[in-house]
Write a structure and sequence with these properties.
CATH topology of one domain: Jelly Rolls
Order of helices and strands: HHHHEEEEEEEEEEEEEE
CATH class of one domain: Mainly Beta
Helix content: 10-25%
Strand order of the largest sheet: 4-8-13-10-11
Shape: elongated
Number of strands: 14
CATH architecture of one domain: Sandwich
Strand content: 25-35%
């Protein structure tokens, strides 16, 4: 047969086109070659290598693609970088492309950051508070004195008021005397808490003084004088102490006088009662003098 001549003929390479046409026979020849232990001629070995390496080309098979071998010993990606395979065959060329998996999505944005602090902080509070725009008014230095009460029978009482006089003592000694009609029908001896002396007075004072700055004086003198009455005198100072006098100019009995040395006790309300040694009415004059 023709293939037997080819196997025996050392110059069989000259008939290689014919051998390819006989594809079935060639395949059989390759199988026989792989199974035999006999040595091949030089030309036959060249043909065998061309077949096994996928490099055998002819004018009519130059466009045939070599299919991937699933059992190939090496798998190549991109034709240059190869990973070892698990089969026993030759090299399989993979012309496709392998893309990386989708990149990780963008990480979650940072949570909303805290707003920037106010670049212009509030100014420090004014350490000095504004003064009270409407301070309480100062108390009236000269309050309006209470008017004199109507004559009332009974023991001397501070529940009533006499003729008002307000002074800081600067007008004492200017002969500013005060004259009025007085009366008295209640004996002082019958009044609890008052000096146990004879003298008849009414409940209401004859004068109510509002005094200030009296400590500038060493002494203050209170003098009662009448032309036709036996006068008596009772004074309650601002500290609540009562002072009494009768018959300063004995034996005429027309004057009564008190000199007070504790002048500071006169700052405030001072009540003066002008009475008689016997019950009745009388016209009398009050004189106040400072004594240094």
């Amino acid at each position: 047969m023709a293939y037997q001549k080819f196997l025996k003929n050392e110059h069989g390479a000259a008939t290689v086109d014919w051998v390819v046409v006989m594809a079935a026979l060639v395949g059989l020849g390759v199988a026989v070659t792989n199974q035999t232990d006999a040595a091949l001629t030089t030309e036959s070995q060249n043909i065998q290598g061309e077949f096994q390496n996928g490099m055998f080309e002819t004018a009519w098979d130059s466009s045939l693609a070599v299919q991937p071998d699933q059992d190939a010993g090496t798998t190549c990606t991109g034709g240059t970088s190869c990973d070892p395979g698990t089969g026993s065959g030759g090299t399989t060329l993979w012309t496709g492309t392998t893309t990386d998996p989708d990149p990780d999505p963008d990480p979650d944005p940072d949570p909303t950051p805290d707003p920037d602090p106010d670049p212009t902080p509030d100014p420090d509070p004014d350490p000095t508070t504004d003064p009270d725009p409407d301070p309480d008014p100062d108390p009236d230095p000269d309050p309006t004195p209470e008017p004199a009460s109507a004559p009332a029978a009974g023991c001397p009482s501070t529940n009533y008021f006499g003729v008002p006089i307000a002074s800081d003592g600067s007008d004492f000694g200017n002969n500013n005397d005060y004259t009025l009609r007085t009366s008295g029908y209640t004996n002082l001896r019958s009044c609890s808490g008052l000096p146990n002396r004879r003298g008849f007075f009414d409940a209401n004072p004859s004068f109510t003084l509002t005094l200030s700055d009296m400590e500038q004086f060493n002494r203050v003198q209170f003098l009662i004088e009448s032309t036709n009455c036996d006068t008596t005198l009772l004074i309650r100072d601002a500290s609540g102490t009562f002072h009494f006098n009768d018959d300063f100019n004995f034996p005429t009995h027309t004057r009564s006088r008190l000199i007070l040395n504790d002048t500071a006790s006169l700052n405030g309300r001072v009540d003066i009662w002008i009475g008689r040694y016997n019950p009745g009415q009388c016209i009398s004059t009050l004189e106040i003098r400072e004594r240094n």
